[in-house]
Structure formats: structure tokens, C-alpha cells
Amino acid sequence: MRILHTSDWHLGRSFHRVSMLGAQADFITHLVDTARAREADVVVVAGDVYDRAVPPLAAVELFDTALHRLAEAGVPTVMISGNHDSARRLGVGAGLIDRAGIHLRTSPAACGDPVVLRDHHGDVAFYGLPYLEPALVKDTLGVERAGHEAVLRAAMDRVRADLADRGPGTRSVVLAHAFVTGAVASDSERDITVGGVAAVPLDVFDGVDYAALGHLHGCQTLTSRVRYAGSPLPYSFSEAGHRKSMWLIDLDARGEVAAERLDCPVPRPLARLRGTLEELLADERLAAHEDAWVEVTLTDPVRPADPMARLQERFPHTLSLVLAPDRSEEEALDSYARRLSGRDDRQITEDFVGHVRGGAGPDAAERALLHEALDAVRTADHLGEVHR
């Protein structure tokens, strides 16, 4: 069976205030064209279809277009909700849409109920594990203590139990939206840390032929059977080194995996430039970046006059400007945003306690209380999304 694996569309998201809707529409066209040209038997979308729980109307219209085009192409599609999606909203009408060959899997309770497709070698069971927020799904999955590993293992136990009751030779594919140990994150994914732990071990996915993962935006191979497709478009300058792509997976009669990486169209390359303003304006080697989306870090000891306007004369698509003067560590005065860059909520709150105490950070009990408070806030946010 030939599987086209993609994820993290984030429909409705912008890139530094530049609308990505046109590029996202181009990707949908590319996806459908590729599915047809490469004779894919099924498309799998591993979560974060939308960028937020209540997406803008234009994003909803684009999603509707994608569903119609996939259905018209006659390519079955299995799709799960991610941590950016509202599972309830994404799953509306799933029963009816099923009849068109579009299978939306957004309910944690249905983790062990696969979409079964058939090729000339027999059945392939596709299990959709939507993003599992531990505090919200632990009771549904029969888990005593909330945690990403615990709920995902419980969901996979249901998958393996169902698979064991199926005929011999049934092959299996799992779609999941999670942060797996050994993978590399970027700046554009939303933090899903619970109790200071976000990652789940790779062995969670033992027992299935292929795990199609979503959540992280870089295309990654953890094993031949466990892969991230990554986002089809860039959503932060930390993705400047990414090659945006999808996986074309061939699953043979024995469940062996052969994978081919297929490039996705991107509107512009990304570039991160660093130096003084005069160096960047004069360096002929930077000509290759003049049509790119550019993030510039200026190292001038004193802020130059009109730096953005001058940069845009040469690099018209400069979107981000950071001032980082080359000074000694004692002289460096980073902005508040700069100090927080790359730090998660847990680190920020612990650092704040140390700051107001003159360097004495939280002890173990205080740290546990901070983590519990952060988890409660995130859970309340998800509950608010469910009830809105």
C-alpha cells in the first residue's frame, strides 16, 4: 500500500505578519497532484490541520476545498486533530464525511477503532490517535496519573489489542501527534510540556508497521518505521535549515517499509544574517539571499539610523530585525524578549523566582507547585476551547 504522509498544515497561520494562505493553497494543490501522479492509495495527515482552535473563515474555506479535492481525486484520507486544533470542531460531521472517503479521527475513546483499507496483499488498519492532552483524557483511557507517556501507552495498548484480534497478515499504521524522544524541535511548535516532561519514548510505537507522526515541524526519521513529515511550509526562522517535504511510504505484503522524501513548494527560502549593517549591505556573497525572507541580527555597537529601511533596500523581504551589539558579557543589555527566546514556560517561571529572590531559585516543593500551576493553566485553556 502506498501512503502519502503529511502533517502540521497550520491553515490560517501567518509568517511574521505575512499571510501564508496563498502558499497553503498551493500546497493543497501540490498534495492532491502528488497523490494522483504517484498513485497514492491513501493520504494521512498527522494533526495540526488548523493553527488555532477557532480558525479564521479563510482557513476553514481552504480546509473545505482540500477535503473536496481529495474526495474528487478518489484518494482515501485519514486525518487526526493536533494540539492546535479543536478536536470537537474538526470532528463535526465526521460520520457523514466518512462516506466520501475522508476519515476524521478526533476522539480519544476511538483510538482502537481503525479505518481499514485493502490492497491486493490484504487489509491495512489505520489507527488515528489525536493529540492526547493528559489531564483531559486520562479517565477516558483508564490512566491513573496524567502524563504524555502514560496516555499514549494506554492508547497504543488499545491499538495492539484490536490488531491482535484481526486476521493474520493485517498490516498496521498509526497516526499520532506527539513529541518523541530523540526528535528535534523548532521555535514554531507550541509547548506541550506536562510536569516538566513532554517527550515520550520511541518504544511506545512498538508492534505497528508504520507510525506517521505530527507535531514537530522538521522532517525526521527516528527509525525506518517511525517518522515525522514536518510542516509543509516554514513558520519560524528556526526552520531556515529545513527541507520542507512529505513522505511517500510503500508498505509491502510483509509490512516492510520503503520511504521516499518528496519536496513541497515554498514561496521563498529563509535566511538568517548576522553582522554590522555596513557589512551586510556591502557583502557580495549575500546576493543569493536578496529574494529570501530574511531575519537580520545587527552587531553594530550603536544602533544605526533607519536600519530596517536600509536593509530592505537590498533585502526587500526582511521581516525580522534583532539588535545584538558585539559587547562584553557585562555590557550586553538584551531586551526582555531576547532573554526569553528559546526558553519554555517552566524555565521562565523558575528564572523569575530566582530573579525576585536575588538569585535563590525555587526548591523542589516550590518547583513542583509551579509545574502543577502551569499544567492547570494549559488544561483550563484546552477546556475553554472544548466548551467555546
From TrEMBL:
Domain of life: Bacteria
UniProt keywords, alphabetically: DNA recombination, DNA replication, Endonuclease, Exonuclease, Hydrolase, Nuclease
GO biological process: DNA recombination; DNA replication
A GO molecular-function annotation: endonuclease activity
InterPro entries: Calcineurin-like_PHP (IPR004843), DNA_Repair-Maintenance_Comp (IPR050535), Metallo-depent_PP-like (IPR029052), Mre11_N (IPR041796), SbcD (IPR004593), SbcD_C (IPR026843)
Domain Nuclease SbcCD subunit D C-terminal: 267-352
Known partners and oligomeric status: Heterodimer of SbcC and SbcD.
Function: SbcCD cleaves DNA hairpin structures. These structures can inhibit DNA replication and are intermediates in certain DNA recombination reactions. The complex acts as a 3'->5' double strand exonuclease that can open hairpins. It also has a 5' single-strand endonuclease activity.
Family: Belongs to the SbcD family.
PANTHER family to which the protein is assigned, alphabetical: COMPONENT OF ATP-DEPENDENT DSDNA EXONUCLEASE, NUCLEASE SBCCD SUBUNIT D
Name of the protein in its database record: Nuclease SbcCD subunit D
Organism per entry: Streptomyces gougerotii
Gene responsible for this protein: sbcD
